Amino acid sequence: MIIEVRKAREEEVNWINSKYKEINFIESNFENELIVIAECDNIICGLGRLISIDNNNLELGGIYVFDEFRGLNISQEIITFLLEKNTLNQNNIWCLPFSHLKKNYERYGFKEYKQETVTIPMEILAKHQWCEVNYNNDVLLLHKYKNEYDTNIRPKSRIVFKDIGV
């Protein structure tokens, strides 16, 4: 099986938002996001995005692997791609995963938010509160600095990162 991760095209955003709507995720906005699509043997199997919040903050989110492709490390491939191909200049990266996914995000340097380390943007705080109201699962508030990503933690797999000119 070959897994490919590529940048989404603008004409795909309506389809992407229809997939996010199915699972009650907030819709994407192509104008301020790096959205990616994962494919297994040319079949779309997952999505993810980096959202520009402001000049110093990004949100890693919308990581969604379709049910029939779970257990194949596709979410790790999506996250790796987004972190490695991130050319945005923001230093803080926030993530709001379900609590059972904590270890998956810790391997990328994410840590539970502590007030004394960095100021949380109001948009992230509001989204975290929205998640806690709208999801049955506990939602974490994680943070990392852009330069805290170790490329040696890349999953060992058969992945191709398509040259996307990012």
UniProtKB/TrEMBL annotation:
<dbReference type="Pfam" id="PF13673">
    <property type="entry name" value="Acetyltransf_10"/>
</dbReference>
<feature type="domain" description="N-acetyltransferase">
    <location>
        <begin position="1"/>
        <end position="127"/>
    </location>
</feature>
<dbReference type="InterPro" id="IPR016181">
    <property type="entry name" value="Acyl_CoA_acyltransferase"/>
</dbReference>
<dbReference type="InterPro" id="IPR000182">
    <property type="entry name" value="GNAT_dom"/>
</dbReference>
<protein>
    <submittedName>
        <fullName>GNAT family N-acetyltransferase</fullName>
    </submittedName>
</protein>
